[in-house]
Amino acid sequence: MAVTTDIRLDTPTPADAAALDAMAEASWRDTFARFYKPEDLDAFIDENFGADGRLTRDLANPAIVWQVARAGDAIVGYAKMVTPTLEQAHPTDAQLSQLYIASDWHGRGAAQALMDWSIAHARSRGAPALLLTVFEENHRAIAFYGKYGFVHVGDYAFPVGRQIDRDLVMRLAL
C-alpha cells in the first residue's frame, strides 16, 4: 500500500474512547489472537478493552500522553506515552507503552507519523532515551523499531491471561 499524507495527528478526548477502544481491540486481535488459547485471549480482552477496560481508563489518566492518527473521521492508530516503569529505564527516560495501527493502515504512514511524534515528544521533555516493549513474535514491529535505531536491551514478562509472553525491551538513545 502506498504511503498517504491524509493522516493527521491530534490528542484524543473522552468522546473518542469508544472509537479508540474499538480500533485498538481489532488491531490487537488481528495481530496477536492466533498466539493464545481462547480463555487467555478472553481474559486479556476483558481486562484491556471495552467501556471498563484499561484503555478507556488510561484515556482519562492525565499522566498518560496520547496521540491518535486520524484519516478523515476514523482513528487509524495511536501512541501512548507513560511514566517509565521498565527496570531498564532511567527515571528521566521516556516510555512508549503502545503504538497500535489498524491492520488496513499498515504501510500507509500512520506508524511512522506516530513514531516520529513519540520521539519528538520524548526529546521535548529532555529524555535521554525512549524505551518500549514488543512481543518477540511481532517481527513486523521489531523490524520497524529497528529501522529507527531501537536496540534490544532486555526482556519483559508480559501476561496474557495465564500465558506469560517474552517481550523485548528496546531502547533508542535520543
From TrEMBL:
Residues 7-174 form the N-acetyltransferase domain. It holds the Pfam family Acetyltransf_1. Keywords: Acyltransferase, Transferase. InterPro entries: Acyl_CoA_acyltransferase, Bact_Acetyltransf, GNAT_dom. It comes from the Bacteria. This is GNAT family N-acetyltransferase. It comes from Sphingomonas plantiphila.
